[in-house]
Each structure stands twice: as C-alpha cells, then as structure tokens.
C-alpha cells in the first residue's frame, strides 16, 4: 500500500519536448542555488548553479531562472531526452553558515520515448 | 580526478555491530560532508568538516561518529545503530567550507540495519 510522504511530485514529458521543473525556496537570505540530478542508485550530480545577483543562467540544454521576489527557482531542460529521467533537487545556501546546502523535496522527471 | 569515492557500496549490519563508511577525494577540496538520504527524500546534512576540523554537527546521535584523518579522507563510524538508520549515506566535498561553492557527491553507501 501507499504511505503518506513517500510520493515525489512527478513530471512526465515526451522525448524532445522542453521540461520545466519548479522549486520554491524558503529563506530570503539565500544567496546561492544549485540544481542536482539524481539517478536511481547514484549520488546527486551537479547540473547548474546561480547566485542571487543573477536572474538567469544558461548551460548546455539547461537554463536556471531565479525570481527572488517570490522566492522561486526553475530549471528548464531543452529537448528532453530519456537520459534526463531522474529525480531533480534544488538546493539553497543561506550564506550564513559556510557552505551548507538545504535541499528541496525533489521532482521526478519521466521522459516518454 | 573529479570524483568522490565511497566504500562499501552496500552494507548490512546488526544493531550490535561496529562498522565504518569511507569516503575519499583527490580534488584538493578542503571541506567534506556526510549526508543521510531516506527513500524518496532529499539528502539531509549530518556533518561538515572544514580544513579537517568538525565545523557542523546537525544534532546527529552519538552512534554516528565522524572522523577526518586528512584532507582527502572522511570516515563515518557506526555503532549500535537502529533499523531506522537504514538509508543511503552520501559523502560530498567542496573547494571551501567557508564560502559557497558546488558540492561534489559520491555514489553513496546503501546501509541496512537488521
């Protein structure tokens, strides 16, 4: 049976479409944000980061957008591929206690071929 | 070498056992971290070592004992664990523990306490 709290939000997209994964962060003092990708049985893998003095940062096929007004972070993946299927976590660093990261709850991305 | 390695990959231990998890990096990073991750949950920080000194202990029970023998190695000694301690234990490292920078994660040790 199912248990409360064991469900990850899931985003299901068609291969080749663009994906947008959202994250709400809690601390208005946070000044550094990271997106990680975690595949089954592996550790989190760095995707892209952004500092609070920026609104947008682009990488290869990925873009991170930061809206400090509403404390919202998003990860856009262009031309999503089956290899993008994973759980995606955002993480924030408040900058008050060194390099400590607090992770968001995670979103599972499923890519349909 | 841009890799954090962890051993063992899997560990099954009884509640009376003593075991250790090991983590190694050769990137010249001066901060190393232990995280605990339960199924379908995000990683939760346990300990931070900065310049080989324990700088943060996130109220972790004393049955978990970290050790940093040198700047490349990080151990987590386990003793008298409970079944609820079963989880994926992740090690990470970063260039600095005092300024913000990317943390690189290892593959984790899957721990089962019986």
Keywords:
heterodimer, A: 113 residues, mainly beta, four-stranded antiparallel sheet, 10 strands, disordered N terminus, B: 114 residues, 56% strand, globular
Could you tell me the radius of gyration of chain A in angstroms? 14 Å
User: Which chain pair shows the most residues in contact?
Assistant: A-B, 28 and 29 residues
Structural class designation of chain B:
mainly beta
Question: Given the C-alpha coordinates, what overall shape of chain B results?
Answer: globular
What is the element string of chain A, with H for helices and E for strands?
A: EEEEEEEEEE
Please explain how this structure is put together.
The complex is a heterodimer of chains A (113) and B (114). Helix content of chain A is 0%, strand content 50%. In chain A, β5 (56-58) and β6 (62-67) form a beta hairpin. Chain A has no helices and 10 strands. Chain A is globular and about 45 Å long. Chain B is an all-beta fold and 114 residues long. Chain B has strands at residues 4-7, 10-13, 18-25, 31-37, 44-50, 53-57, 64-70, 73-79, 87-94, 104-105, 109-113. In chain B, 35% of the residues are buried. The model of chain B has no long low-confidence stretch (mean pLDDT 94). At the A-B interface, β3, β4 and β9 of A face β5, β9 and β10 of B.
Topology:
The complex is a heterodimer of chains A (113) and B (114).
Chain A: E1 10-14, E2 19-24, E3 32-38, E4 45-51, E5 56-58, E6 62-67, E7 72-77, E8 86-93, E9 102-103, E10 107-112
Parallel strand pairs in A: 1-10
Antiparallel strand pairs in A: 2-7, 3-4, 3-8, 5-6, 6-7, 8-9, 8-10
Chain B: E1 4-7, E2 10-13, E3 18-25, E4 31-37, E5 44-50, E6 53-57, E7 64-70, E8 73-79, E9 87-94, E10 104-105, E11 109-113
């Amino acid at each position: 049976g199912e248990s409360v709290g064991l469900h990850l939000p899931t985003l299901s997209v068609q291969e080749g479409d663009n994906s947008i994964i959202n994250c709400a962060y809690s601390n208005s003092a946070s000044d550094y944000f990271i997106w990680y990708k975690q595949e089954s049985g592996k550790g989190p893998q760095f995707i892209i980061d952004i500092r609070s003095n920026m609104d947008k940062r682009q990488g290869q096929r990925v873009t991170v957008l930061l809206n400090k007004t509403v404390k919202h972070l998003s990860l856009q993946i262009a031309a999503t591929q089956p290899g993008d299927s994973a759980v995606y976590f955002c993480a924030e660093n408040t900058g008050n206690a060194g390099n400590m990261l607090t992770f968001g709850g995670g979103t599972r991305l499923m890519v349909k071929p | 070498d841009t890799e954090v390695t962890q051993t063992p990959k899997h560990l099954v231990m009884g509640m009376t056992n003593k075991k250790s998890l090991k983590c190694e990096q050769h990137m010249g990073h001066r901060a190393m971290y232990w995280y605990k991750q339960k199924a379908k949950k995000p990683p939760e920080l346990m300990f931070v070592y900065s310049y080989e000194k324990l700088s943060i202990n996130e109220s972790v029970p004393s049955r978990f004992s970290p050790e940093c023998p040198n700047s490349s190695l990080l151990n987590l000694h386990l003793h008298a664990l409970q079944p609820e301690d079963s989880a994926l234990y992740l090690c990470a490292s970063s260039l600095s523990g005092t300024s913000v920078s990317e943390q690189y994660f290892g593959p984790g040790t899957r721990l089962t306490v019986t």
